[in-house]
Amino acid sequence: MSKRRYYLEDRALDEAIARFEAALARAGGVHLLDSETIPLAQARGRITAAPVWAARSVPHYHAAAMDGIAVRAAATAGATESSPLTLTLGEQVVWVDTGDPMPPGTDAVVMAENVQVLDETTVAINAAVAPWQHVRPLGEDIVATELIVAEGAVLRPVDLGAIAAAGYATVTVRRRPRVAIIPTGTELITPEAAAAREAAGQPVQPGEIIEFNSLILAGLVEEWGGIPTRLPPVPDRQELLRAAVAEALANHDVLVINAGSSAGSEDYTASIIAEFGEVAVHGVAIRPGHPVILGVAGGKPAFGLPGYPVSAALTAELFLRPLLYRLQGLTPPERPKATAYISRKLLSPMGEDEFVRVTLGRVDGRLIATPLSRGAGVVTSLIRADAIAHIPRFSEGLHAGAEVTVELLRPQAEIESTIVAIGSHDLALDLLAGYLQRTGAGRRLSSANVGSFGGLMALKRRDAHLAGVHLLDEETGEYNVSYVRRYLPDEEIVLVHLADREQGFLVAPGNPLGLGTLADLTRTGVRFVNRQRGSGTRVLLDYQLRQAGIDPSAITGYEREEYTHMAVAAAVQSGAADVGLGIRAAAQALGLTFIPLFSEQYDLAVPRRHWESDLLAPLRQMLCEPAYRQAVAALGGYDVTRMGETVAVRHASPHP
Question: Are the C-beta atoms of residues 33 and 413 closer than 8 Å to each other?
């Protein structure tokens, strides 16, 4: 048995690519795939393997270009509206329809509207024509032997039509790269198996993971012109992975092994690739995706992509994408780039190139990039991302407001029509995003969850169009107004009421610990999960604890923070915590019991210039829509009676 390597390299990105290229060259290089001939109906998007030369002219005869009479042009000389010319139907004056062959001896067509029928054999014309007027001569469009489509062209629908017109029913194209994708891990179960078990009342167990990376990778391979084969997950056994790799290499052009690329006791990807060929790189100084493997197996390119979905997707983009295009004789298309301004400080490890997914929106003329979660396992960051920001190696990161070049993942027009919301999380905002999409108004709502204080600071920096806030003033009992005056003294803000909502304990079904008051949080053995500092829920909790005379240090888990109500609910559902403070809708969504404690006011803080803008017009309308209000109320724990009511906060008060 070969000795397994227990370490990862730390190759710079450029060096890793160079070493991979060298390994491919030693194995014989990257060659264009062979060709195949397929029907035109199946050829859209395929790449021509040879030039296509016209087999016939188009049109292949002189054709009438108008309905009318075919004539000798010379015979029409002198015809005008005031002095019509009479012609006799016969061999050289013949009725024709558009597309008809021109009769022998004719060289022009008089349009039907310029012809008056006098009797069965005689017509009068009121306009003369020049030779070849209203005639499509042979070869006007295509001349036989003319080049129609060059080699290496990506076939479009119009290309297929031209090839058919030029005399062909088939076309020779390059074969698409066949890519084998092997997921690895004893803990993996397929989505189909998981669904079948759920239907049978046997839910997925802790420690089991639904295998979905291969779906992501297969979709990317198809986008890049390849043919993916998703093979069944292989348990963490070296001999099973060896057999799966041998079978895959027999009939595929590229090998992708997903997971098992690190240096754990059951990570066999590197050693298996080495058995079949060469590991050129094991570990690249990038984040996410450090443990990626680049090599050659059986003379074919082989990749070991990390198991976390964000890492797998990024390393596929960096290394697999360019290879698949090369196999087809193409250069990978460059995505559009733009200059944006980062909405919050980002620290980055000095020795790694980091690729951060961001959401984008234009606020006050600047394109604002808001970082999404940087966790390698956070698949939702792949869904929500509008662009990727590259933080180069040896950079310490980016300060808030710094310029950054981003690579766009969405069309520019879609980004320009995005409403940027930064602030407190609420499920009603998630619903609002969906309703805006349904209206077809061309607006998209992008939310970043940083808490109420974070939202006000985003408005202060002009990084957002609106912020969700629910901040209680302990002195007045009023929500949000005093905070807006304090932190946004130079802005005219419109506070738009979204809903009154219940806050309370989120606990396991049936409330097995019998929790009912804040004092119960101090009981021995009760584990609490908190919201982050700056969130409205945290402000509310701290206020209520002071009112009750409870020391936060007496609460086990008070320092553990989550950034959304759903994250708190998930911690309770998973058993990682016994209780958290959150909204009823979050408890209802995950099947938890909700113990109501408080009612609070949730508003949208919007600078007036944005509130009255065309960009937010669909949002203003949506807050008045009965269907949206009913959907929010159905979440549970929401009172939408005052939804859409506004209060203008015009100036600062020295002591709110």
Answer: no
* CA 455 to each of CA 233, 384, 423, 487: distance values in angstroms, whole numbers, following the listed order: 43, 19, 4, 11
- Distance from C-alpha of 360 to C-alpha of 339, rounded to nearest angstrom: 11
CB 489 within 8 A of CB 651: yes
What 8-state DSSP symbol labels residue 416? Answer: H
Q: Which two tokens stand for residue 562?
A: 């989550």
- What is the DSSP track for 333-356? PPPPEEEEEESS-EE--TTSEEEE
Q: Which domains does the chain have, with CATH numbers?
A: 13-32+177-328 (3.40.980.10), 35-58+141-174 (3.90.105.10), 63-136 (2.170.190.11), 337-448 (2.40.340.10), 463-649 (3.40.190.10)
CB 62 within 8 A of CB 135: yes
The single residue listed with the structure tokens 């600078």 is: 607
Helices in 173-281 by DSSP H: which ranges? 191-199, 213-223, 238-250, 269-276
pLDDT of residue 635: 86
* Whether the Cβ atoms of residue 217 and residue 228 lie closer than 8 Å to each other: yes
pTM, entire model: 0.81
The identity of residue 605, as a single letter, is A
d(CA 213, CA 490): 48
Q: Which residue has the tokens 């306009």?
A: 127
**pLDDT tens digits, residue range 246-298?**
999 999 999 999 987 665 556 789 999 999 999 999 999 998 999 999 999 99
Residue-wise pLDDT tens digits, 445-486 = 998 888 899 999 999 999 999 999 999 888 888 899 999 999
Radius of gyration of the chain (CA): 34
Annotate 152-161 with b (16+ C-beta within 10 A) or e (fewer). Answer: ebbbeeebbe
DSSP codes, 43-80: -TT-BBSS-EE-SS-BSSS-EESSSEEEE-GGGGTT--
- Span 323-343, average pLDDT: 93
**Look-up of token digits 């017009």:** 617
Torsion angles phi and psi, residue 538, rounded to 5:
-65, -40
C-alpha count within 13 angstroms, C-beta hemisphere, residue 563 = 12
